[in-house]
Amino acid sequence: MCGIVGIVDAGGVSFPLYYALYALQHRGQESAGISTFEGTTLYTHKAQGLVAEVFNSQTLQDLRGNAGIGHVRYPTTGSKVPENVQPFNFRYRGLDLSIAHNGNLVNTVELREEYERRGQIFCTTTDTEIIGNIIADALRTSKSMEDAVLLCMRRLRGSYATVALLNNTVYAFRDPLGIKPLCIGKLDNGYIVASESVAIDALDGTFVRDVRPGELVRIDESGLTSVQVATANRRAYCIFEYIYFARADSVMDGTLVYDVRRRIGQKLYDARPIEADAVCPVPDSGIAYAAGYAKQSGIPFLEGLMKNRYMGRTFIMPTQQQRERAVRIKLNTVRGNLKDKRVVLIDDSIVRGTTSRRIVNMIRDAGAEEIHLRVGSPPIIAPCYLGVDMPTRTELIASGKEVEAVRRSVGATSLTYIPLEDLVEAIGCGERNLCTGCLTGCYPVEINGEKSCHCVVDYVAGTHQSDLSTFRAGKEET
Ligand SMILES: O=P(O)(O)OC[C@H]1O[C@H](OP(=O)(O)OP(=O)(O)O)[C@H](O)[C@@H]1O
Ligand SMILES: NC(=O)CC[C@H](N)C(=O)O
Ligand SMILES: [Mg+2]
């Protein structure tokens, strides 16, 4: 679930891109990069590390220009090596293309083989390079960006919220099912597209709307226009964005994520009411759920665990050893809030069980009498192929196990997951418009060896039209 951003702003873009990436850091902690364009030069700075480690004021000053894109990476295809750090650049006779992607393709191998047979040399092991190659190849043969993106949408299978910088124009497109989020904001002197609305907030911008599934947005110095390249008979918003990935203060496809999580917390109590002395969240992502649970149950909200504020997310770290080490440093008990108490412990999800196994033990050691674990997602039983790094069933604690077996394995007094119907109701857009692959084993795109649900996509690319509603809204702001 990487974070992507694209900005065109008359006041220069490198610092705004940096702050936007900072706001999206929770989506990818392995590397960060920015590309900008000025005159005839494409500037790129990227490296492994957190946003604040990769950039400093000098590197940002050197990234010149009024148009640019940025990326923070959470690897899903291709390991954590320097050559896989995005954005990727493609240059051809006065044409400078830089590209950054959030999502995961499921036909990378076929496409790569096809392009290699045609003589293409790949420099990375990511799926994103395929997207760049399809676009660069189309542009090289004098096709328009609209045609190039249409070709992508016809050829790519999987999820791809993408930003591209072509000379001094920023393009952004979202796959026809809208699996990964992408939204548009208005800045004082330009526009921004970003994975989450918190990036717009960080720049004091105004949220305009989400990029529609299958839409291609174009931003240059004269404003924002868009064209609908493809439409599908359903959407497939990633359900795990609402559960875990997105920041709670983001508005995603029309819904404030905090509200979704609070509603799930309320429903978690209703699903299995119990008596207890304290509702404790597993910070950070469990907090909104626990707020909802405490309100619904009347049981006091109490912090039984404290998070070290200098630690990032553990689930998105690349190896199990790193994840385990990080959970140890990240969370500690507030003993006085736990001793002799019946505790309801609330987390958004149990995936590999790394977090819950450890904290249930810690809470018991701190003297809690009972630990009732409540989880804001149903059991994660199937791999994700579309952007979450959980590629096999064997690593998932709940796969092929009854709830009772998971409870025993984490050591809780009781364990309840939110039922899927309640989760879907809390999100509010209907199961048909969500990708629930990790919860049901049924995916919205065809994946070898897995069940898929039927989707129909129409390709409707026409002429490039001005999106008047958006454009007017933007003009009124200025
Ligand atoms: O069962 P696991 O494999 O441990 O994965 C699930 C846990 O990992 C995530 O927390 P993380 O520390 O990544 O981020 P957070 O601070 O946003 O909660 C998630 O919120 C759960 O707590
Ligand atoms: N998490 C993501 O969106 C990752 C993008 C791309 N698949 C990569 O691994 O670099
Ligand atoms: Mg967590």
Automatic annotation (TrEMBL):
The stretch of residues making up the signal peptide is: none
Q: What pathway or pathways are given for this protein in its record?
A: Purine metabolism; IMP biosynthesis via de novo pathway; N(1)-(5-phospho-D-ribosyl)glycinamide from 5-phospho-alpha-D-ribose 1-diphosphate: step 1/2
Relay the cofactor remark from the entry.
Binds 1 Mg(2+) ion per subunit.
Question: Which annotated residues bind Mg(2+)?
Answer: 285, 347-348
Q: What is its EC number?
A: 2.4.2.14
Active site positions = 2 (nucleophile)
Alphabetical list of InterPro entries matching this protein: GATase_2_dom, Ntn_hydrolases_N, PRTase-like, PRTase_dom, PurF, PurF_N
Q: Does the keyword Iron-sulfur apply?
A: yes
Q: What are the entry keywords?
A: 4Fe-4S, Glutamine amidotransferase, Glycosyltransferase, Iron, Iron-sulfur, Magnesium, Metal-binding, Purine biosynthesis, Transferase
The cofactor required is:
Mg(2+); [4Fe-4S] cluster
List the SUPFAM superfamilies hit by this protein, alphabetically. N-terminal nucleophile aminohydrolases (Ntn hydrolases) (SSF56235), PRTase-like (SSF53271)
One MF term from GO for this chain? magnesium ion binding
Q: Which residues bind [4Fe-4S] cluster?
A: 238, 384, 435, 438
Q: Where is the Glutamine amidotransferase type-2 domain?
A: 2-222
Q: Report which reactions are catalysed by this protein.
A: 5-phospho-beta-D-ribosylamine + L-glutamate + diphosphate = 5-phospho-alpha-D-ribose 1-diphosphate + L-glutamine + H2O
- Pfam families, alphabetized: GATase_7 (PF13537), Pribosyltran (PF00156)
Q: What does this protein do?
A: Catalyzes the formation of phosphoribosylamine from phosphoribosylpyrophosphate (PRPP) and glutamine.
Q: What family does the entry list? A: In the C-terminal section; belongs to the purine/pyrimidine phosphoribosyltransferase family.
What's the name of the protein?
Amidophosphoribosyltransferase
Give the originating organism.
Methanoculleus sediminis
